[in-house]
Amino acid sequence: MTTGYAPDICTLTPRTVRAGSGSGVTSFALRAAGAVLAAASMTLAVPALAQSPSATGWYTGFGLGQSRLGFRTGDFNVGPAGTAVAFDDSNTAFKFFAGYRVLPWLAIEGGYDNLGRNAVSFTNAGGTARLDYKVDALKLTGVGSFAFGNTGFSAFGKLGFGYTRVRENSSNFPAVMARGELSDREWRISPVIGAGLQYQLPRGLALRAEYEHYNEVGDSPFPTGRARAGLWSLSLMYLF
């Protein structure tokens, strides 16, 4: 029975053996064998320090990453003739999530994604106007996973729906766009898919790297405009 403790290797280190000393060779062999046993004992003790999570049950996590929006450019061609439109399509993002493992390979997961603040710039003879385009979402997905033996690694895929919100605020619109400043928001239900890798750590912790894709956020016609949204993230999880 493993107690989680290993012998002190320092006391098992072989002493210098004199040439031609049979007793010295025997002592060396015994001490070497003791060192091997000590190393084996330490190896066996490591699993005792780790707390394996239950095959089913709750988990939660927090992640950081980068979002990227694929703007539908036609929705933003709204300025006077000669207006050039530019898109700032990536930003820092963060997320919170929690789920319940119904089966070892199947979970139901809900969460909140904040994809940061992107921008659309309009430039013409009147100067430059800016439209802040902020996206966040509540989502509910099913998560199926496949473990790679006892390596601690597993692959997973997710499929579900997100309740997305686009919030917009403009600046310098009267001079450049010949229209008043605007502040608008648009809610939309969008399919969401994702895939990634997860690695089990000791103490019920896990690391997850994944990509998630929202089919479409925002609305047409302007002011909100539409975009496809993607999120790369690295998350730290705790499995109960």
Percent of residues in β-strands: over 45%
> Helix count, per DSSP?
2
**Spans with pLDDT under 50 lasting ≥5 residues?**
1-26, 35-51
Radius of gyration: 29 Å
Q: What does the main sheet amount to? A: 8 strands, antiparallel, barrel
| Global structural class | mainly beta
Helix fraction?
10-25%
Q: What global shape is seen?
A: elongated
- Termini separation comes to 26 Å
H/E series: HEEEEEEHEEE
Adjacency order of strands in the biggest sheet: 1-3-4-5-6-7-8-9
The beta-strand count equals 9
Summarize model confidence as the mean pLDDT: 84
Structure description:
A hairpin with a 5-residue loop joins strand 8 (205-219) and strand 9 (225-239). This protein has helices at residues 22-49, 173-177, and strands at residues 57-71, 84-88, 90-103, 106-124, 127-147, 153-171, 183-200, 205-219, 225-239. The chain is 14% helix and 59% strand. It is mainly beta. It has two helices and nine strands, in the order αββββββαβββ. Strands 1-3-4-5-6-7-8-9 form an eight-stranded antiparallel beta barrel.
